[in-house]
Amino acid sequence: MNVLIFATNIKTESNKNKIATFLNANKSILKWTIDQEDIDCVLRIISKKLNASQIIDLLNFHDFDCRELQ
Fold first, then answer.
1. CA 16, CA 1: separation in Å to the nearest integer?
2. 3-class SS at 9?
């Protein structure tokens, strides 16, 4: 089980709804949350199969900034 944590630019409810569409559709993502009140708009993803670079590529493909937090 991978718990992946990212800083993003997902600041608005509209942005959250946009990512919800493709994150919810991805069967490899078991759960995800986003803290839009945090300065880094922290996205947390739980997945058994995906790694950080795959999530970054997915968000970048949909025009969102995303970098892994340690």
1. 24
2. coil
Put simply, whether the predicted model's pTM sits higher than 0.90 gets the answer yes
Which neighbouring-strand residues pair with 46?
Answer: 3, 31
Question: d(Cα 35, Cα 26) in Å, to the nearest integer?
Answer: 20
User: What are the Cα distances from residue 20, in Å, to 1, 45, 70?
Assistant: 21, 12, 23
The whole-angstrom distance between residue 41's C-alpha and the CA centroid of its chain comes to 10
Kindly report, residue by residue over 33-55, the tens digit of the pLDDT.
Answer: 999 999 999 999 999 999 999 99
Q: Tell me which residue of 37, 38, 1, 34 sits closest to 20, measured CA to CA.
A: 34
DSSP string, 16-47: HHHHHHHHHH-TTEEEEEEETTSTT-EEEEEE
